[in-house]
Amino acid sequence: MPKPPTMKDVAAAAGVSLKTVSRHVNGATNIDPELAGRIAAAIVTLGYRHNLAAASIRPGRSAKVIGLVISDLANPYWSALARSVERVLSENGYLLMTVSSEEDAERHRLLVDRLIAQRVDGLIAAPPRRDGLDWAVSASAALPLVAIDRPVLPSSARPRDEEPEGDSDGVGGESARRVTIDSESTNGSPTAGSSVAVETVLADNAGGAEAATRELFAQGARRVLFLGDSLELYTMRERLVGYRRAVRRASGDPVDDDRALVVTSAHTAAEAADIVGALLGSGQVDAVFAANNRSSIGALEAFTRAGIRLPLIGYDDFESATLVRPAVSVVAQDVALMGETAARALLARLAGTPTDPAVTVLPTQLILRGSERP
Amino acid sequence: MPKPPTMKDVAAAAGVSLKTVSRHVNGATNIDPELAGRIAAAIVTLGYRHNLAAASIRPGRSAKVIGLVISDLANPYWSALARSVERVLSENGYLLMTVSSEEDAERHRLLVDRLIAQRVDGLIAAPPRRDGLDWAVSASAALPLVAIDRPVLPSSARPRDEEPEGDSDGVGGESARRVTIDSESTNGSPTAGSSVAVETVLADNAGGAEAATRELFAQGARRVLFLGDSLELYTMRERLVGYRRAVRRASGDPVDDDRALVVTSAHTAAEAADIVGALLGSGQVDAVFAANNRSSIGALEAFTRAGIRLPLIGYDDFESATLVRPAVSVVAQDVALMGETAARALLARLAGTPTDPAVTVLPTQLILRGSERP
DNA sequence: TTGTATGCGTTATCAA
DNA sequence: TTGATAACGCATACAA
User: Which nucleotides of C are covered by protein (CB under 7 A)?
Assistant: First the structure.
């Protein structure tokens, strides 16, 4: 690869000054048509390409690139999110750089630093599990940061439980709640435990999980299995909170042994299938709340293998939910809306709109398709 | 956002020269430990961050960023591909910038130009449908380019047909074929019609489709439906070629009306479902070859709705293939291998290894799970 | 409308 | 080992 031609080369070839070429490239109108023609010709014959990296080092100029750090590109949930973020940003002239941390805190940190070093204009990131808030403090000092899907929490954050059951009825409101962060109060709001002011977009995980679990009880279930991934994940903790709220409400008392019905070791669909398979014969369980799409698929696999099926509701919609009989009921999150919301929040921040960082909680929707019934 | 501190600031704060800071940042070892300590401290207190964009404008230096242009982030096939490419590249110190053209030729061109302007070190791209080879000629003049999933073809390229049926037995070999491009000969090889030398990684679409269709005939099918997306897509054309080979072999003659069994208007799962639904009652069809994952899912939906099912084999594996009964047989492509192969080819090129551009054709695998039987 | 000179943050040369 | 200085490709005062 020979070294690429520069503006200087174009200027020389066209017999004009560097500045004129710069104007032409940047779309200035006040150029002599004659010269403009010569420049255009030179650009073509030399194969000149504007160097945005070089241009972006000038003060006040940027490359108009945004970074997006997600946790798993291979999961449709995340790729759908990336897609919607990209759509909004590209409509506004930004290029999106999507990277995946594979749920690895170390890699997450590396990627964030790398993107900042690359001088992206802003960052949208799904905070990694248990990685504290240092990265976010450091990053938000360098550029506008939006947390997506999970809040930025100190690494000491533990599952919240036994919380006030006031206004939340577990069904999710019709519209998103936007709550300005009050770093003084550390309870009540979904930001409980957060002590860094980062614009955040979340789904109402607890509300969705509660609605699903309640529905299973309403259909006559007595012992509902919570099937999910590690509680190191914020979303899992929230969904467990919702599940527990529903259990408590259904049983009237704190059900001592309900822990036996909570499984949080289903990291993949295969593991979920094994767990459910082992439980199917035991009679310990008469319904399943699958706390993410992998778990739902695993549970279905186990049902199929065993030729038995229990009432099931999953968190997160998935493509094959309508392919199996009965079709799978799910708590659906509006992924597209989440991506859009995060993207717009970042754009607002880039535009200099001085809004206080806030937490936006998007409602979920319980879609009943039949699998919730015995 | 205050303007970020520069090396100069760090140098001033640490009381050393600019160059020394530069050395420190770039990991040079020959620095007085005393000074190194002062520099490190200054970096932390100032919150300095290395500016890779600025560094990369120096000749011989690059930002170590690769661009990947795929056609649909929301399709698991592409996100899996992106994932495997990212894995290989990040192991080699590169950052991957994944963008999605949404199958839009105009947007594809825009994105390619944008990435080049951003001065990525190399590009892996899925050529858009019917966009000719101008973009590839222009791009490969500026940086190393690898085409993935589809070859770069002139926009006039039409479905190939009636080709020699020599060594291909439609089953796919055990290992990948790597064929050096000979721009003189324009027939026989999978590059037929290509006239620009671009490193290319493809799957054996025709072979996989032929194997699947043959299997359906072997199971007793008489009239197999080809259900797929537009023939503007190279992969669809190839799969149709394979299908036709199998049809011809099964019927002994060119079956005049086989066109009636070829549907190429299934752009989404929903469309595929409608098409299959309309055909189910007609008796025109007794088996289905679904030429991509969307079509497979659509066909399943139609089966489920109608309560009838026909023998089915799909091209491309998909997550729910094992969830339905009978489980869906598929032609599986090794997406991870395709991504790796493309990434390694690009890395080799970046390392300066002067290999001739070649076309690598990866074998496919027919996985029989039961749905192929009546 | 066009050109000159200067600076952006970083690295490389070369002398100290 | 360290530092002054000159690039790198581009854009912007400012002058012409």
Answer: 1-5, 7-13
